[in-house]
Task: inverse folding
C-alpha cells in the first residue's frame, strides 16, 4: 500500500505530508473496522452457508438500489455487492465480510439486516433438523389411544 501511495503523483508541494496524512487516516479507519466484533461469527465457514449469506446481501443491496433508482427517477447507485465478483468460496467469504465492513448506511439498517440474517439462518437450520421428523398434533378418543398403546407395546415399538 505504501508503494502505491509513493507512486501517486500529486501536483501540490507538500506531497509527503499529504500522502502521510492519507495513510494515517486509512490506518485509523482500518483500526476501527478491525476492532469491531465480527458481524458473522455465527455463520459457519461452509460454502452453502456463505453463498446463502452472500445472496441475501445481494438481494438487500439490489432492493436498496432499485428503491434509490425509483426515488431519484432513474439514478443508479451501485450496491456494495457490485464491487465484488468472487470466483470461489474463499473469495466469496472475503467479499461478504468486506462488503459488511464497507456498509456505509445507517447503523440501524446494517444491524437490522444482520439480525434478520441471523434469525433466517437459525430458522433454516431448525427446518433442516426437522426433515426426518413428523409433527403430530391431534385429538384421539381414549379408547383409540389405549388401542394404539396396546399395539405399540405388543410390537415392541415403544
Result:
Amino acid at each position: 500500500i505504501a508503494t502505491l501511495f509513493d507512486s501517486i503523483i500529486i501536483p501540490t508541494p507538500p506531497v509527503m505530508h499529504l500522502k502521510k496524512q492519507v495513510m494515517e487516516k486509512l490506518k485509523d479507519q482500518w483500526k476501527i473496522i478491525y476492532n469491531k466484533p465480527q458481524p458473522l461469527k455465527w455463520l459457519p465457514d461452509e460454502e452453502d452457508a456463505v453463498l446463502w449469506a452472500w445472496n441475501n446481501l445481494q438481494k438487500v443491496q439490489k432492493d436498496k438500489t432499485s428503491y434509490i433508482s425509483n426515488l431519484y427517477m432513474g439514478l443508479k447507485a451501485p450496491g456494495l455487492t457490485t464491487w465484488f465478483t468472487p470466483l470461489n468460496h474463499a473469495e466469496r467469504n472475503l467479499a461478504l465480510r468486506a462488503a459488511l465492513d464497507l456498509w456505509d448506511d445507517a447503523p440501524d439498517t446494517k444491524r437490522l439486516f444482520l439480525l434478520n440474517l441471523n434469525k433466517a439462518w437459525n430458522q433454516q437450520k431448525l427446518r433442516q433438523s426437522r426433515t426426518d421428523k413428523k409433527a403430530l398434533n391431534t385429538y384421539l378418543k381414549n379408547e383409540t389411544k389405549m388401542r394404539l398403546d396396546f399395539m405399540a407395546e405388543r410390537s415392541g415399538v415403544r
